[in-house]
Design goal:
By secondary structure, the protein is mainly β. Helices cover 4% and strands 47% of the residues. It has a seven-stranded antiparallel β-sheet with strand order 1-20-17-22-14-13-12, with no helix packed on it. Strands 2-3-10-5-8-11 form a six-stranded antiparallel β-sheet. A four-stranded antiparallel β-sheet has the order 4-9-6-7, with no helix packed on it.
């Protein structure tokens, strides 16, 4: 049984909780709350920074001693509107009280710099189209390196149309060798539309020491400690995933698999 595929623990409350220690690495943590109206979640950040992503629903949020009021307007993630997000610094605390049914992602990494609690979206988040043909997907870069809003975290959303590939051509970012490559641990939180659908993700290294292919269902989480990690959305089911990355350097530099790099060169 793979240890990279994490199934949700139930359908309500805190259904995912993966710390860096639990994952067996050093940087990325990820939790997910699914709350009913008036239910609440609250956490201290300790030595970690946090980006809260309101995947679906509305909530009243406080963080770092500030009241950010009611946030969220996307009631179904597949509406594809830009998400409401909130940065919370280390040595702080946050609370979320659900106004509606709420899906709240908690993305964490070591707090390396001093940034204030602040809204990161929807303002400031655009939509980027990446790839061509059956490799087309649509990106919401919530907190990538062009936004100086975090010390460690890189966070982005990806929508992959039915029948398309994503995180493709296969690529890796598992060596600390900037500017050629950066070491970044990564999680994928998956959603499927319609919800009974499934997708596929393969995680493998070129030396063959890791090679796992997983079928992912709605709300599943995949850990990517190293290696290549493309996804496929079968015909009839579109795929969403929320990526969280972190490592020694807050930059995203990757290398395509040498056997498949020709695809990127053709589509450039």
């Amino acid at each position: 049984m793979t240890t990279l595929l994490r199934k949700p623990k139930g359908t309500t409350g805190k259904v995912h909780e993966v710390s860096a220690k639990d994952a067996g690495w050093n940087y990325v943590g990820f939790s997910l709350y699914r709350l009913a109206p008036d239910e609440a979640a609250a956490e201290a950040t300790g030595d970690r920074e946090v980006i809260l992503v309101l995947v679906e629903g509305k909530a009243r949020l406080t963080a770092g001693g500030q009241d950010f009021g009611l946030m969220g307007d996307r009631m179904d993630v597949f509406e594809k509107s830009t998400p409401h997000c909130l940065y919370v610094p280390g040595s702080s605390h946050w609370t979320a009280v659900a106004e509606t049914t709420l899906t709240l992602a908690v993305c964490t990494a070591p707090a390396k710099a001093s940034f204030p609690a602040q809204k990161l979206g929807p303002d400031g988040i655009g939509q980027v189209t990446r790839g061509k043909g059956a490799n087309t997907r649509y990106i919401h870069p919530i907190a990538m390196e062009d936004r100086d809003v975090a010390g460690s975290l890189l966070v982005t959303e990806v929508f992959t149309p039915a029948g398309n590939w994503s995180s493709y051509p296969p690529h890796r970012h598992d060596v600390d060798d900037f500017p050629n490559m950066t070491y970044l641990e990564e999680t994928y939180y998956h959603r499927l539309n319609p919800s009974q659908g499934y997708g596929h993700q393969r995680v493998w290294t070129e030396d063959g020491t890791l090679d796992e292919t997983m079928s992912v269902s709605n709300h599943d989480l995949v850990l990517v400690p190293k290696g290549h990690h493309p996804c496929a959305a079968p015909y009839g089911y579109e795929m969403y995933y929320l990526n969280v990355m972190a490592g020694p350097l807050r930059k995203w530099r990757f290398r395509n698999h040498p056997d498949h790099d020709w695809i990127a060169n053709r589509d450039a």
